[in-house]
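Can anyone check this?
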Amino acid sequence: MRGRGRFGPLTERPFRLLWLGRTGSSIGDALIGAVPVLALVPPLPLAVIVAASAAFGIAIVFGNTLWETALQQELRPDRLARVGSIDWLLSLCLMPAGQALAGPLVGPLGVRGTLILAAALMPVPNLCVLAFVREVRRVRRRDAPDPAPA
């Protein structure tokens, strides 16, 4: 197996980019991603919160690398900037909406309930894409063609 003794995500070349990227990201959101949020539920020590956040950061970086690779591989170059812009727009614009909803939920649910709800909802968008968009599940890695002789 390639990558032994090295940092795996830098040396591995997954065949199913979005399945691993989006599923890996969803699993990371569900398992690793929920941990930093749940670690905020008292009384976990700061070291546990930091470790959970670091693991989540690594999972997100790996998933985003596969996502960006798939975008560049599957989209025509003249469409890449527009699709990338829409992707970032939707990703960043939904964050304040979630933050705005969290405040009013603290009243009826309490801090603990709100954090648990947030942890439970984190993987939902990625899992919906995997469940309902067949094309995402079918994206495969393409090996680069051999360079033309000079």
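Reply from J.R.: I decoded it. Residues 14-138 form one domain.
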